[in-house]
Amino acid sequence: MSRPRWLTHFGFDAPPFHKDIADEQLWVPSSRQRVLDRLVEACTERGHVLLTGEPGVGKTCVLRALRQRLPRARFRLTYCHNATLGRRDFYRHICLALGLSPKATAAAVFYAITQHVQEQREEQTHPVFLLDEAHLLHQQVLAHLHILANYEWDRSPLLSLVLVGLPELDTRMRLRVNRSLYSRIQTRLCLGEAQPDDTAEYLAHRLALAGCDKVLFDSDAIALLHEASDGRLRDIDRIATDALKRAARRKHKRVDRALVDASRDDDIID
Q: Over 70: is that where the pLDDT of 120 sits?
C-alpha cells in the first residue's frame, strides 16, 4: 500500500496524531503532572479517587500514564469502561476483566470478586479498579460500590477504586444517596482546561514521535488551534491533521493561521 502523499510531503514516519500510541510515548503536560502525582500517591496509600473533567481533556491519557507509573510487581490495574450495565452484569464485567469465570447469581459474582481481592493481599499485590465513564453508572451500582470497598469490618484497605467521568459525576457523588461512597473518597481531582502552552507542547511532542524535528505550525496557527479546540486533545488531533493535509495539497511546508481556520470548519473543502 502506498503512503499517503501528505506524510511523504512532510517526511513523517507515521501519521503524527493517530490514536495507536504506546503508554511510554504518551504526553502528559506539566500542568497535568500534579494530577498524575496525586493519583499515584492515592493508589500507593491504598485510597480511592474521583477524577472528573470535560470530554477530551486527557482523562484516559492520565490513566494510561498511571499504568506506567505504578510498579507492576506491586499493583494490579483492572480497567472497566462499560458503565451502562445493571449491578449483576457490572460485576460480571469486572469478573471477566479480572480473568475470573462469572457466576450465575449476583451474590456469587460479588463473592468471587471479593475473594480475588483478598487473595491479592496474600500475593502482596494491591488491586486498583479503574472505572471509566463512571458518570454513566446505574444508581444501583454506584450505591453498592462502597460495599465492594469494605473488607474486614472496613478496617483493611485491600482495594482502590478510581472513578473517572464527566463533571456531572461529581454532582452525582454529592447526592445524599451516595454519601457512603463519597465519604470514603479522600482524593478528589478535576482536570481543568488545557493552557495554550500545553497545546504547543503537545504538537511538538506528537510531531517528534512522527520523526519531525522541524517547527511546522506558526505561532498564530497554534494560538488559533488552541482556541478552536479548547485544548481538547481529540479536537487538536482532528484539526491539526486536516491542516497538515491542506498544507501538503498546497505544497506548503508550514501550517499558517489560515489553514487552521479552514480546518476547524468542516464545511470548507479545498
A: yes
